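Sharing a chain and its predicted structure for anyone who wants a worked example. Both blocks are below, sequence first, tokens second.
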Amino acid sequence: MEQLTFLAVHAHPDDEASSSGGLYRLLADQGVRTVLVTCTNGECGDALDGAKPDADHHDGDEVAAIRAIELDNAVKILGISRLVRLGYRDSGMKGWPQNDDPESFWATPVDVAAAKLAETLMEERPQVIMTYNEHGFYGHPDHIQAHRITVKALEMIDYERRSISTRFLILSLSSGASAGNKRTVNAPMPTRPRVSSASPRHLTLMKKRLRWERPTMQSRPPSTSATLTARNSTPSRRTPRRSRTPSG
């Protein structure tokens, strides 16, 4: 049986834990190969004393060194098979002076960063890729850039000529992602996957043709509610049932 590979493109050290830590650990426990691509070093994070990047004594390089250790520890705890650091400087929030740093992720041409990511995609050939939507989850420049380079990297790859697996899913990380909201794709992968906006409150699978289901925690045991599957079968034509969301 072909081993499944899951790859997430995250912006900063700690995003892998805060946004997808549970998923990484779950997939590792299920025998899935997991890969993490971290785009920046996280220089704009808080210092150990809570100092923000605009504080006089804030040292971005020192913060990045601490976050590098934290990232290594997170990789071990979450059972991540491979960590790839792209090594760009943290761009900070929108409008911060760090946006204009030529070494920042935000200032890096999309094609340049995407080419580096494409190399990893060709090496790993993941069936599943996860990153942020085009709004960067909450508008952070580095999250937006992570989305852009992921889409561009996919466009750079000639899947058919390079024999990439035909079972390919693209997910977009948005707020409120939960294990109970799972969608399963059973369709051939197009040469250029179509990417659309993520719906709020769940992980949205984006693909040209898909069959999906959203099991509730009552209808399916918790141990299987978030199981990652990618099977070869005929896509169902049934209309998906949508669970109701309480008002307020």
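Comments welcome. The beta strands are 5-10, 33-40, 82-88, 128-132, 169-173, 204-205.
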